[in-house]
C-alpha cells in the first residue's frame, strides 16, 4: 500500500488506478445482476409464503371448522385432522417468511449498501481526484511560466497556489486509493459472509420444517391408513349398492309384468329400501318392531299429487310410508331450512282447525329435522279408490277432516300396493298395536280416572273404578261439553266420532254412520275397547265437544245451534 502511494501521479499509479476502477465497474455490474436475482428470489419466497397461507385458508374453508357439520361429515373425524394440517402449513409459511426476511436483510440490504455507498464513494473520489489533478496542473504551469523579472509578490502568490493545489491533489489521491482499496477488501469477505449467512438461513428453514413434519409423521401415517380403510369400505358399499340396484331393476320388471297381468305385486317397485310386505299381518309386525326404535320404510316412491289450489295442477312428489305409521312427502324444490319454518307454520295442512293443538304435540320429529317434507295424518284419515273426476285413471284419495289428497300412481299394480299398505297402516293405527308400550306398565285410563275423581273430592278405591271402558267414559265425560251429545245435547253420550273428536248419543251415532267413514268414524266408548289407547284419549282430552262445536259450528248463529 505504501509503495503504491509513493508512485504519486506516475504512469504506474495511473495504470493501477485504472485497473482498480475497471474491476470496480465490473463488480458493480455483477452486483446489479446478483441484486436482481436476489429480488426475484425474495419475491418468490413472498409468493410461496402467501401461497402457503392461501392454501391453509382454503383447507380451513373446506373442512377445518370445529362445529361445521360438513367438516365433520367428510372423512368421519375430518375437522380435527384438518386443524392439525392447517396449523402445520401455517408454521411452514412462517418459516418461509423468516427465510425471506433473512434474504432481504443479509443479502439485498448489503448489496444495496455496497452499490449505493461504497461504489458511489469511489466514483465521487475519482471525480474529486480528476478535478484536483487538473487544478494542480494549471497551478504548476502558471508557476513554471514566470519570467526572471516577475515581481516577488506575484511569485510568492503563485507558489502558494501551487502548494495548495498539490495538497488538495494529494488528499484526493489518498481518498481515491482508500475507496478503491476498501472495495477490494470488501470483495474478498463481504459477499462470502452474506452468501454463507443465506445458506445458514436455508439450513435453519429446512431443519425447522423437518422437525415439524417429523413430529407429525405418526399422525400422517395414521390418517393415511384410516383413509385407505375408508376407501375399501366405500368400495364395498358401492358394490353392495350396485347389487341392490340390479335387484331392484329385476324386481321392478317383474312387478311391471305382474301389473300388466292384473296381478298385485308382492313387493314395491318404486323404492330400493322398501320392505315389500303386503299383508296386514306383515305390516303390523313391522310397526310393532318400531317400538324398539327401529324405524323401517314400508313403502316409498313417486306419486303425482293434485294441488289444492284453484288450478288443481299435478306435481310429482316423493312419498314415504314408515313403520311408525307416518306418511310424508318431499317437495321437488330444494330444502331450505332457514325459510321453511315460516312456511310450515302457515301451511293449510298443519295450521288451524280442530287438530292443530294435537298435531303441535304429536308431530313427527323426523319431518321437523328434515324441514323439507309434509306429513299426511293417517290416524284420522280414510282411503278411497278413484278421484273426484271419474275420467282420471290410476287415482286414489286419502281423506282427512282437514284435507283430501288426490294421488295418481304410474300403473295399476303400484296404485293397488299403495292403497293396500296405507289401509293396513290405518288399521294398525286404529288397533293401537304400535302404541302398546305406553300402557304395558301403566294403566293410563285407570290413573286418569282416579285423578278426575280426586279433583271432585270423590274418595273411591281402585275396586270401585270398574273396568277399563267405564274409566275411559268417565275420563272423556269430564272434558268440557262432553257430558252431553255434541249434536242433540242428550246426557251421557256413549259413542264418539274419532276423526271429529266429539261424543255422541246412540241416535246421533247412527246418523253419523250413514254419512260414511270418510266423514265420521263412529266408535263405542264401551264396546270398542281397543280403540281407546292413550294417544286417542289424549286427542279427545285436548279437544272436547265444546271446543269442536266452536269450530264445526263456528259460522252458525246461537239460535241456529
- Fraction of residues in helices? 55-70%
Structural class: alpha+beta
> Order of strands in the sheet with the most strands?
4-3-2-1-7-6-5
CATH architecture title of the largest domain: Up-down Bundle
Integer count of domains: 3
Oligomer: single chain
The poorly predicted ranges are 1-7, 263-278, 334-371, 433-442, 451-466
How far from one another are the termini? 130 Å
Largest sheet: 7 strands, antiparallel
**Name of the CATH superfamily of the largest domain:** Arfaptin homology (AH) domain/BAR domain
Strand element count: 10
Number of helices, where a helix is a run of at least 4 consecutive DSSP H or I residues: 15
Mean pLDDT: 76
Which range does the strand content fall in? 5-15%
What is the CATH top level name of the largest domain? Mainly Alpha
And the CATH topology of the largest domain?
Answer: Substrate Binding Domain Of Dnak, Chain:A, Domain 2
SSE succession: HHHHHHEEEHHHEEEEHHHEEHEHH
Specify the overall morphology.
rod-shaped
Pfam families: ArfGap, BAR_3, PH
Keywords: Metal-binding, Zinc, Zinc-finger
Domain PH: 296-427
InterPro entries: ACAP1/2/3-like (IPR045258), AGD1/2/3/4_BAR_plant (IPR035670), AH/BAR_dom_sf (IPR027267), ARFGAP/RecO (IPR037278), ArfGAP_dom (IPR001164), ArfGAP_dom_sf (IPR038508), BAR_dom (IPR004148), PH-like_dom_sf (IPR011993)
Amino acid at each position: 500500500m505504501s509503495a503504491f502511494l509513493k508512485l504519486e501521479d506516475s504512469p504506474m499509479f495511473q495504470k493501477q488506478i485504472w485497473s482498480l476502477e475497471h474491476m470496480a465497474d465490473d463488480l458493480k455490474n455483477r452486483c446489479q445482476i446478483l441484486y436482481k436475482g436476489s429480488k426475484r428470489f425474495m419475491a418468490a419466497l413472498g409468493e410461496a409464503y402467501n401461497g402457503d397461507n392461501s392454501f391453509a385458508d382454503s383447507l380451513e374453508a373446506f373442512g377445518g371448522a370445529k362445529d361445521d357439520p360438513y367438516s365433520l361429515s367428510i372423512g368421519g373425524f375430518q375437522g380435527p385432522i384438518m386443524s392439525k394440517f392447517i396449523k402445520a402449513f401455517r408454521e411452514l409459511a412462517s418459516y418461509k417468511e423468516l427465510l425471506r426476511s433473512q434474504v432481504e436483510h443479509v443479502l439485498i440490504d448489503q448489496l444495496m449498501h455496497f452499490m449505493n455507498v461504497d461504489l458511489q464513494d469511489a466514483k465521487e473520489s475519482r471525480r474529486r481526484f480528476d478535478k484536483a489533478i487538473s487544478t494542480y496542473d494549471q497551478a504548476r504551469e502558471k508557476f513554471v511560466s514566470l519570467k526572471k523579472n516577475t515581481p516577488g509578490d506575484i511569485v510568492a502568490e503563485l507558489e502558494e497556489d501551487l502548494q495548495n493545489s498539490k495538497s488538495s491533489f494529494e488528499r484526493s489521491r489518498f481518498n481515491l486509493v482508500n475507496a478503491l482499496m476498501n472495495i477490494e477488501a470488501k470483495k474478498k469477505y463481504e459477499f462470502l459472509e452474506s452468501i454463507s449467512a443465506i445458506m445458514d438461513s436455508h439450513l435453519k428453514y429446512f431443519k425447522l420444517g423437518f422437525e415439524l413434519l417429523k413430529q407429525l409423521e405418526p399422525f400422517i401415517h395414521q390418517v393415511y391408513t384410516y383413509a385407505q380403510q375408508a376407501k375399501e369400505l366405500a368400495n364395498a358399499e358401492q358394490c353392495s349398492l350396485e347389487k341392490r340396484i340390479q335387484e331392484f331393476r329385476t324386481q321392478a320388471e317383474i312387478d311391471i309384468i305382474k301389473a300388466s297381468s292384473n296381478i298385485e305385486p308382492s313387493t314395491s317397485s318404486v323404492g330400493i329400501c322398501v320392505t315389500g310386505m303386503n299383508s296386514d299381518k306383515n305390516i303390523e309386525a313391522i310397526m310393532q318392531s318400531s317400538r324398539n326404535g327401529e324405524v323401517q320404510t314400508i313403502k316409498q316412491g313417486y306419486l303425482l299429487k293434485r294441488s289444492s289450489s284453484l288450478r288443481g295442477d299435478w306435481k310429482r312428489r316423493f312419498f314415504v310410508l314408515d313403520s311408525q305409521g307416518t306418511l310424508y312427502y318431499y317437495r321437488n324444490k330444494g330444502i331450505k331450512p332457514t325459510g321453511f319454518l315460516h312456511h310450515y307454520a302457515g301451511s293449510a295442512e298443519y295450521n288451524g282447525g280442530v287438530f292443530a293443538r294435537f298435531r303441535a304435540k304429536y308431530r313427527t320429529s323426523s319431518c321437523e329435522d328434515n324441514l323439507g317434507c309434509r306429513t299426511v295424518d293417517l290416524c284420522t284419515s280414510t282411503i278411497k279408490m278413484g278421484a273426484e273426476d271419474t275420467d282420471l285413471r290410476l287415482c286414489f284419495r286419502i281423506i282427512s277432516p282437514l284435507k283430501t289428497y288426490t294421488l295418481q300412481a304410474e300403473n295399476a299394480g303400484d296404485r293397488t300396493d299403495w292403497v293396500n299398505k296405507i289401509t293396513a297402516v290405518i288399521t294398525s293405527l286404529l288397533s293401537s298395536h304400535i302404541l302398546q308400550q305406553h300402557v304395558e306398565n301403566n294403566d293410563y285410563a285407570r290413573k286418569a280416572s282416579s285423578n278426575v275423581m280426586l279433583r271432585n273430592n270423590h274418595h273411591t278405591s281402585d275396586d270401585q273404578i270398574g273396568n277399563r271402558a267405564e274409566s275411559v267414559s268417565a275420563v272423556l265425560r269430564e272434558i268440557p261439553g262432553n257430558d252431553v251429545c255434541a249434536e242433540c245435547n242428550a246426557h251421557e253420550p256413549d259413542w264418539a266420532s274419532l276423526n271429529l273428536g266429539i261424543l255422541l248419543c246412540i241416535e246421533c251415532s247412527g246418523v253419523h254412520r250413514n254419512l260414511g267413514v270418510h266423514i265420521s268414524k263412529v266408535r263405542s266408548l264401551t264396546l270398542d275397547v281397543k280403540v281407546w289407547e292413550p294417544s286417542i284419549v289424549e286427542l279427545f282430552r285436548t279437544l272436547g265437544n265444546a271446543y269442536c262445536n266452536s269450530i264445526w259450528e263456528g259460522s252458525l248463529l246461537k239460535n241456529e245451534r
